[in-house]
Write a structure and sequence with these properties.
Three copies of one chain form a homotrimer. Chain A is α+β, with helices and mostly antiparallel strands and about 160 residues long. Chain A has three helices and five strands; from the N terminus they run αββαβαββ. Chain A has a single domain, classed as RutC-like (60s Ribosomal Protein L30, Chain: A), CATH 3.30.1330. The model of chain A has no long low-confidence stretch (mean pLDDT about 95).
Chain lengths: ~160, ~160, ~160
């Protein structure tokens, strides 16, 4: 199955990708490396839902945090497709960086980030298995619950 | 215009770059990739000004935060020039990572980081347009207001 | 002296590397780049010691934080050896990212991270000298005191 077929068979629709909210670009390719800017958990309408706004450990539940992380990963893939015209040039997801807007004592950071990791493996299959760093941060742009950045190998 | 000419025409002077404050190096080149250590918002005198010390949302204003982020970017370029002897080998700024020392409810993280992004584009032109991740962190070395790390493609 | 000899002569034993605590992999190689997932300060028994759990500035002392950072670096090397079968293919440590679980006013972040940097230089010698970014974060997985991610050049 191609990556695009896997998207369809899983009912995943990539949104029109968000424009950067400041003076930078969504992705930069350098040789076979593709670096994707941190993506927030914006929904398909380009907006941050109330359920995906705020902190894990305060107003955002684990399930909503996981859904937010999944949205970040969907938005990462939307940016890649906007740059390359397709997801097929992806050889490998090298790394995801996961930033969770959380309290200082939140206990389920990896479980939240799994929402992004699981989506990447669901869409890309084995080449979607990536190195990962997950941290709980004091604050994120727009008070988003999750932000995910990525590095891919592309051919 | 060369990069060095753009520096001069914009009145930007790169400082004598700061020595790492611990057991590491400012930049590492690996093939065409150049990775620059997180740079703090030290001034041209190598010191952290009171206006650029502390947290956004407490003691540091948005304007001071933007100036701090710009200083970080200037210091990134100073490190690159110290390693390569010139900025001309820069083909592209691939990525900036922006770390803002902020309260848990600070609302203008991207605007602060624009101070760094705008400087990079001002100096490098179109090849200065980079992928970017901005997060608000609990604390930074020396209680600096901003820290910026970078990755470049060099030729 | 080979890297493995330097390990032995310094009495450093690499543990059986920890399995990722979620749906990702410990390391990804892409060409000459090797990216290592954020490693927590798990001990040789694969467990997080109470002394290496919690925040710098609250319950974790500077000395314990440094020991935790050193453990993270040991675990990074254990993951590299598990993937490559040996540490000898390492040409260079390009970058360490250091995430310190800290209060909002903790004052010794770089000193904590030195525990990781010093170990890397001790084991790899001059090629162990790396670019580095150190930040204080709100929270880490398992409430670990320190997490370290890495990028190497391998041959």
């Amino acid at each position: 199955m191609s990556i695009e077929e896997r998207l369809r068979s899983n009912g995943i629709e990539l949104p029109h990708p968000a424009a950067p909210i400041a003076n930078y670009v969504p992705c930069v390719r350098s040789g076979s490396l593709l670096v994707v800017s941190g993506q927030l958990c914006l929904g398909p309408d380009g907006k941050l839902a109330p359920a995906h706004t705020g902190k894990l450990g305060v107003s955002v539940s684990l399930a909503d945090g996981q859904a937010a992380a999944r949205l970040c990963a969907v938005n990462v893939l939307a940016q890649v497709r906007a740059l390359l015209g397709s997801l097929e040039p992806i050889k490998r997801c090298i790394r995801l960086g996961g930033f969770i807007n959380s309290t200082a004592d939140y206990g389920s950071l990896p479980q939240v980030m799994n929402g992004a990791s699981d989506l990447m493996v669901l869409v890309l299959g084995d080449p979607g298995r990536h190195a990962r760093t997950t941290i709980g941060v004091a604050q994120l742009p727009l008070d988003a619950a999750v932000e995910v950045e990525a590095m891919f190998e592309v051919g």
